[in-house]
Design goal:
elongated, mainly alpha, 0% strand, single chain
Length: 131
């Protein structure tokens, strides 16, 4: 025997009747258009905020902040970067370092990094004792 439309095995659950195909498709497209409109508004808002931030901070200030992050002691200097520190010195503090100091700086920073991280790895673990 024949199956009734909308009932039985292998029927699409979202279509209530065979005649609902066009309406169901239209509802899907309408929903997609609403979602696109909301996404478009969201992107425009983010773009506006980005432009506002760009107008507040010039390129040099942003670079200074990025390079300075390599000096952050959080997580045992996880962001420590010899290259970033050397770039920070050459671009923003050239008057504070002699030419010889700028030449020696990468080597001194590499030695510092090795010594620091070896020291961190060999620190004794303290244990609490109770009496």
């Amino acid at each position: 025997g024949e199956l009734e439309t909308g009932r039985g095995a292998n029927q699409i659950g979202t279509l209530q009747r065979a005649g609902d195909t066009r309406s169901s498709h239209l509802n899907s497209i309408t929903s997609l258009m609403r979602m696109f409109h909301a996404t478009d508004i969201f992107v425009a808002a983010i773009d506006s905020q980005l432009q506002e931030l760009n107008s507040r901070f010039d390129e040099n200030m942003v670079e200074l902040l990025i390079l300075s992050s390599s000096l952050n002691s959080k997580d045992s200097f996880k962001s420590f970067s010899v290259d970033k520190i050397c770039s920070l010195v050459s671009k923003f503090y050239p008057e504070d370092f002699t030419e010889q100091e700028q030449i020696r700086l990468p080597y001194e920073l590499q030695h510092y990094a090795v010594d620091f991280f070896q020291h961190v790895l060999t620190l004794p673990v303290s244990t609490a004792t109770t009496a």
